[in-house]
Amino acid sequence: MSETIPPQDTRPSRADADDVADAVIGVDTRIFRTVWDTLVHTPRVLQAAFEGDRERYVPILRLFLILFGLQFAVVAFIGLPQSMSLDQFVRPGDTDVLNNWLGGQTADAVNLTLERAAGLTNTILVFLSSLPYLLLLKLYRPSRSFFGHALAYLLATNVSYLVMLPLMLPAALGNFIFWYVLSFSVGLSVFYVAAGRILYSHYSQKAWVVALQVLGMLLLLPITLLLVILGQLGTAELVMRVFHDLSYFELFFQLAEAQAQ
Question: Tens digit of pLDDT for each residue in 87-97?
Fold first, then answer.
């Protein structure tokens, strides 16, 4: 007598649907759910990452890298400089000082070197500026690994990018300084709101403790900005000395002396 084999459940799962969409149209459907829940249900996305759930959302780190790359693409599209340049510091009346400092070299060659160096170091500077936040989050909850704190920080950063990037696009139509400052200000504010939601759900259930924790993160802002500025200046000084035998700081001093006269 033959044994009856029960039919298997062949109903497609959510993962199957995602795989089909990815194979047919090259779109990971998780991205839409990830973007929505990152904005609306931020703590839920972090909890899924802590639980190792890779089917529901695009990994936080992967989304960060996508948004980070989009930021530079948008900045290039609207024509904002991505690195320090001589034009940012030299006024039309300082041409003689600049030419004397260049010593026969061209400003375009120097700006090109600075742009190439920025392309290699901007990512490093961004991660360097995140270290104070990671150390502070570790202080808030020492039992959690640094990777867990990094996920929390990157998730809040993803929220700010998702809000900030669309606000930067109108800058291509004009008045780009206004739109850039507006997008940066809104994105920064959204970052701390998202950080507060994450802290309340995964670090402390007491509102007054979370308020103090967010305040601590706010106090780190000048430090992180200073790290980025010093990093950019240090990079500019290094590449000037290595590739052009010039000193960026000498130019600043010469410009300051000329403006004082």
Answer: 777 777 778 88
- Measured at the CA of 228, the angle between CA 222 and CA 231, to 5 degrees, comes to 135
pLDDT in tens, 21-44: 443 433 467 899 999 999 999 999
- Give me the count of residues in the chain: 261
C-beta atoms surrounding 123 within 10 Å? 13
pTM value is: 0.80
Angstrom CA distances, 208 to 136, 152, 204, 205, 222, stand at 17, 20, 9, 9, 23
Return mean pLDDT, the chain: 83
For the chain, give the percent of residues with pLDDT over 90: 42
pLDDT of 74 reads 79
| Cα–Cα dist 159/64, whole Å | 9
**Closest of 166, 189, 199 to residue 77, by C-alpha:** 166
200, 206, 211, 217 alpha-carbon torsion, rounded to 10°: -50
Task: State the alpha helices, DSSP H only, in 103-145.
Answer: 107-140
Number of helices (H), then strands (E), in the chain: 11, 0
Q: What is the DSSP string of 139-185?
A: HH-TTS-HHHHHHHHHHHHHHHHHHHHHHHGGGGGS-HHHHHHHHHH
| Structure tokens given for 88 | 């940012």
Q: What tokens does 77 get?
A: 């599209």
User: Range with the lowest mean pLDDT among 9-13, 178-182, 222-226?
Assistant: 9-13
In sign, the C-alpha dihedral spanning 206, 129, 59, 25 is positive
